[in-house]
Design goal:
single chain, 328 residues, alpha+beta, 2 domains, four-stranded mixed β-sheet, 6 helices
Length: 328
């Protein structure tokens, strides 16, 4: 199981490296920075070595943006955003870059839009003080074709297969943790899933968790919850839900809800801790005692077997105490 996941991640890494190829038929010399374009066939992003003239953070961002939004001289490449799609403004705050596009952005086809977004993110994420990037249309966050906000993105948000369309299908084995029927413990479920190659594994895990179990468990995340965004930085996975996450379902214990998310994501080798937020706000308490500002680590104390064992021990202690009291 673990071996399969490591193999999948290694393959993804190789594919990402292979995708950083020049627009021609030869490999570009290794460079400190790259400008990511889209190939003429609109099937993948391609990288061309570039040496920025500016050294300041904001100046370098503006320089890279200028290059991205002008025609390229490379015969086999095209600019990421088609003409008519314009960046109206941008700002940088707390290592997050916000990009504001005009309404023409929404007119791109699905694959072209994902490729455009991947090229822009991969180019700008190279700037030292840019840890993640958000896209906006006017003042509204960018949403996918289902109306769900895309959320913050990093370079790891995009996986491509060179020579294939970006929405090619891959297979992975993942381990998820759902609630038991009693709502007081977790049950483990392994799933083999087929997914589009442009989705990150942490997003894949969260989407499957939201869908609910295939076996005997119960969905642990409250109904009406939507995933706004998920990203990993320095081993911490940041999960941002809609306000639906705050819906109360007292049939399932608070820790079961939280650790179904934490334990499922912690199965991924690049995730050590998990922090949950609602509409970007982590300064909240889930129900009564689970603080969302906490960076939670994997915890198997709430597994169904462990809970039953503890309940049995508590009952035995209670019976012993009752017997002792009766003997007096």
């Amino acid at each position: 199981m673990k071996k399969n996941r490591w193999n999948l991640l290694f393959v993804c890494f190789v594919l990402l490296v292979a995708g950083a190829a020049s627009c021609g038929n030869h490999q570009e010399e290794i460079s400190d920075y790259y400008i990511y374009y889209i190939n003429k066939e609109k099937t993948k992003t391609v990288a061309v070595g570039y040496e920025p003239q500016e050294t300041g953070t904001k100046e370098m961002i503006q320089e890279l943006l200028n290059i991205l939004f002008q025609d390229t001289k490379h015969p086999q490449c095209r600019r990421p955003a088609p003409k008519g799609v314009n960046l109206e403004s941008w700002k940088l705050g707390d290592d997050q870059l916000y990009l504001y596009f005009n309404s023409a952005y929404e007119e791109m086809g699905n694959i072209e839009e994902v490729l455009c977004r991947a090229a822009i993110v991969r180019t700008l994420i190279q700037v030292d003080e840019v840890e993640c990037i958000s896209f906006y249309i006017g003042d509204a966050p960018l949403v996918d074709k289902e109306g769900t906000p895309v959320g913050v993105m990093t370079a790891e948000s995009f996986i491509e297969n060179p020579g294939e369309q970006i929405n090619s299908i891959q297979t992975a084995n993942i381990t998820l943790y759902f609630s038991n029927q009693a709502g007081n413990g977790l049950v483990e479920e392994e799933q083999e899933v087929h997914y589009s190659s442009n989705i990150s594994l942490e997003k894949l895990v969260m989407e499957q968790l939201l869908k609910g179990p295939l076996g005997d468990g119960r969905a642990s995340i409250p109904d009406g919850t939507k995933l706004i965004g998920v990203s990993v930085l320095d081993g911490v996975c940041f999960v941002n839900f809609s306000e639906g996450f705050l819906n109360q379902n007292y049939e399932i214990a608070e820790p079961v809800v939280i650790y179904s998310i934490v334990n499922s994501l912690a199965e991924l080798p690049n995730v050590n801790k998990v922090q949950i937020s609602v509409n970007g706000d982590s300064n909240q308490v889930y129900r009564e005692k689970m603080e969302l500002g906490t960076m939670y680590e994997r915890n198997l104390d709430y597994m169904d077997g462990a809970v039953q064992k503890q309940d049995k021990k508590d009952n035995e202690n209670k019976e012993a105490a009752d017997k002792q009291g009766g003997d007096r």
